[in-house]
Write a structure and sequence with these properties.
Helix content is 30%, strand content 28%. The protein is globular and about 55 Å long.
């Protein structure tokens, strides 16, 4: 599924959060959304997912404007994974993952055979099938994050919108998640803070700064020392890793004080 936005803007109390953003994520493409804290990444993703109504601009799925779609119809096309999602602590892991089947069920109907097969497959993909019966409150932060991703997969969407999904995950599960996203056969737009991880796994990168899209292109084109200094206020060096992808090495923040030994 192709996801596009045209001159998308959204503000809070008159303060612009997303300003005139236009983007185009092709069907099957994995695109990383980058930017410092407060750049507007979460708000942009929520506008694209139909969770917030933009003040201006349009969102389209495969060329169809979705502004007037119902929440159920949108949920049958895209799944959104937030940074932090609270659920009832009495639920089991399988119950949380099963929430992904809600757009396909009547209000009073429980999961059927097809639903249960989809739920099990989603938990298997993120390595949580053995924890299906465990209470939600017994999970670690990383396990909860993987369960929310399984919930999104159980939704069987055409597109996945994920806001910092690698939060709370150790290195192994970060790598496994990014491999999963790039191999899931869906359109993926994922907000990330780890620039090297984004460069390694994403086809293209979008860079937000103060709510505006300031760069779009391949990782090598977007990640430059000058842009990292301007957007993230860091002194960074770009190199190439063993797989030919851009890798970022940080010397420090631009505003860092001199080392202590230089002051004596």
């Amino acid at each position: 599924m192709r996801i596009t936005a045209e001159d998308l803007s959204w503000a809070v109390g008159g303060k612009p959060v997303v300003s005139g953003v236009s983007l185009d994520v092709a069907s099957g493409e994995t695109v990383g959304l980058l930017g410092s804290n407060g750049a507007g990444k979460s708000s942009l993703l929520r506008c694209l997912a139909g969770l917030r109504t933009p003040d201006a601009g349009r969102v389209r799925y495969d060329g169809r404007q979705v502004g007037d779609w119902s929440a159920r119809r949108i949920a049958r096309h895209v799944a959104f994974v937030a940074q932090n999602s609270d659920v009832d602590s009495d639920l089991r892991v399988a119950d949380v993952v099963g929430l992904g089947r809600t757009p396909f069920r009547d209000c009073w109907r429980g999961p059927d055979t097809t639903d249960r097969a989809v739920i099990d497959a989603a938990m298997q993909r993120v390595g949580l099938l053995s924890l299906a019966g465990r209470p939600w409150k017994a999970l670690s932060g990383g396990e909860r994050q993987r369960a929310h991703i399984a919930r999104a997969l159980a939704q069987q969407p055409y597109g996945l919108l994920l806001d910092e999904p690698t939060n709370h995950l150790d290195v192994k599960h970060q790598l496994e998640l990014m491999q999963l996203l790039t191999g899931v056969g869906r359109t993926v737009l994922v907000a990330l803070h780890d620039l090297s991880l984004a460069a390694r796994y994403c086809d293209r990168l979008l860079l937000l700064h103060h709510g505006r899209l300031v760069a779009s292109g391949t990782p090598a084109a977007v990640l430059t020392s000058e842009r990292l200094a301007e957007v993230f206020e860091v002194d960074a060096e770009l190199s190439t890793d063993a797989w030919g992808n851009p890798a970022v090495t940080y010397r420090g923040p631009l505003s860092a004080p001199p080392p202590t030994h230089l002051l004596t």
